[in-house]
């Protein structure tokens, strides 16, 4: 994974075929949903995906000579964490959970196995400290969303990656709804030097504009690469290609 390359995450993968299409197409992260969702995956399928993707995984990138730098700010912390992830062999397998018991999360991490965990509910950021792999923590964006310095968003020594996704009113199930938020809100975070993932209503057609406006470290798509509620290999490839061109 090129350290300068914007990250492409394909989420809600439920089949070996879709996972292989994502891996072969250059996806950096493949997301599998273990929370209640139309895209819920069972353990056996997740393990089959892990086995199928393993031969397609690129070799990790060796770190440059280690020069210890004192991390003083949230921007420095999240930049360091994102740089560590970009050195790992892609694609990384990420399990998505939403307000579920820690024991269940730890069991899936071990049994699949998972490279990353995504906390997509209202879990406290501190929960990440009890998870042995890097954690992506979602923050749902609505009109009241704040990128002020005292936000939980910037809580260091917990999650490794910030994910901004649209807050959808009237439903407990968040994510994968195909609804966008105001990308200029994300841009305010980018302007503070904080790398983050951006999701919510992204498609092959709008991802370049989203990147141009929001300036994320990476982008996350689920429904935007589906046809008839199933992952579409052509749309997956088009999405990744357009991320690379942005």
Fold and architecture overview:
This protein has 246 residues and is an alpha/beta fold. The chain is built from seven helices and ten strands. Helix content is 30%, strand content 17%. The radius of gyration is 17 Å and the shape is globular. The two termini are 17 Å apart.
Task: Give the structure's gist in a few sentences.
It contains 7 helices and 10 strands. With 246 residues, the protein is of the alpha/beta class. Helices cover 30% and strands 17% of the residues.
Percent strand equals 15-25%
How many strand units? 10
- Tell the overall outline: globular
Q: What percent of residues adopt helix (DSSP H or I)?
A: 25-40%
Whole-number radius of gyration?
17 Å
Mean pLDDT: 90
- Number of helical regions: 7
Distance between the termini: 17 Å
Main sheet overview: 8 strands, parallel, barrel
- Order of secondary-structure elements: EHEHHEHEEEHEHEEEH
Protein topology:
Elements (H helix, E strand, L loop, with lengths): L6 E4 L5 H10 L3 E5 L9 H11 L20 H13 L5 E6 L4 H10 L4 E4 L15 E7 L19 E6 L16 H8 L6 E2 L8 H8 L3 E4 L4 E2 L2 E2 L1 H13 L1
Parallel strand pairs: 1-2, 1-8, 2-3, 3-4, 4-5, 5-6, 6-7, 7-8
Antiparallel strand pairs: 9-10
Helix pairs in contact: 1-2, 1-7
What features would you highlight for this structure?
246 residues, alpha/beta, two-stranded antiparallel ribbon, 7 helices, 10 strands, globular
């Amino acid at each position: 994974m090129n350290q300068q390359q914007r990250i492409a995450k394909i989420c809600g993968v439920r089949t070996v075929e879709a996972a292989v299409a994502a891996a072969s197409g250059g996806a950096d992260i493949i997301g599998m949903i273990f929370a209640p969702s139309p895209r819920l995956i069972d353990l056996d399928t997740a393990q089959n995906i892990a086995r199928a993707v393993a031969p397609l995984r690129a070799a990790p990138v060796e770190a440059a000579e280690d020069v210890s730098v004192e991390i003083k700010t949230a921007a420095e912390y999240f930049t360091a964490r994102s740089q560590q992830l970009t050195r790992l062999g892609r694609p990384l397998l990420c399990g998505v959970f939403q307000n579920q018991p820690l024991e269940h999360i730890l069991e899936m991490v071990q049994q699949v196995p998972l490279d990353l965990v995504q906390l997509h509910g209202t879990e406290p950021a501190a929960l990440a400290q009890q998870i042995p792999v890097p954690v992506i923590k979602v923050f749902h964006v609505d009109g009241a969303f704040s990128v002020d310095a005292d936000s939980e968003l910037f809580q260091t020594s917990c999650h490794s990656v910030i994910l901004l996704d649209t807050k959808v009113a009237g439903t407990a199930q968040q994510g994968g709804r195909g609804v966008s938020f105001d990308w200029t809100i994300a841009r305010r975070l980018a302007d503070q030097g904080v790398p983050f993932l951006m999701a919510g209503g992204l498609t092959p057609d709008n991802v370049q504009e989203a990147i141009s406006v929001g300036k994320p470290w990476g982008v996350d798509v689920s429904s935007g690469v589906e046809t008839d509620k199933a992952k579409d290999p052509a749309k997956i490839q088009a999405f990744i290609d357009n991320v690379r061109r942005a």
